[in-house]
TrEMBL record:
Protein known as: Methyltransferase type 11
GO biological process: one example: methylation
Entry superkingdom: Bacteria
Species, as recorded: Streptomyces iranensis
CDD domains in UniProt: AdoMet_MTases
Amino acid sequence: MPHEPSRGNSAADVRDFFTPRAAEWDRRFPDDGPAYAAAVADLGLRPGDAVLDAGCGTGRALPALRAAVGPEGTVLGVDLTPAMLDAALREGRDGFAGLALADVARLPLRDGCLDAVFAAGLISHLSDPRENLCELARVVRPGGRLALFHPVGRAAFAARHGRTLTPDDLRAEAQLRPLLAGAGWRLESYTDEDTRFLALSVREVG
């Protein structure tokens, strides 16, 4: 079974991992929709909000994000891998959001323009987790929110890939809380169950 890129991999490594899997990605994980919708609901978006799906992949979260912010809101999806965005287009998910090829290390967005960021499965693919989380903080207004999500918990995910959990796992609360704090986020709630991983954070003021 293929492994995900490890911490610190380059943009090219991430593209190399996802490009050959993009066309079949949704068919590999056909039952994740309700988990995405529930995580979006917990993000607490309001009608009219502006939200970014960072590392949107095939865009599975985009319908739920659009429903949460309504027609007057703004939904953006960015991904590093052209093949994943192509798959999102084939699924018609550009009808729910503006899609762009972009790296979360250098987002083409102005400071504080967003109310929230949704990021599914993103943290294990970041080239520089602290700096990349700082970049997400840059584009979110003070008091805005960040959801780091995965449709299965850490233990289930590790088992799926034939691995065991290690103390340096970035998604472990003891690792994630100070990492977020150093990047301008306050971890507000942390859930790690077999059926879901969700860490919700608030953008600190200043």
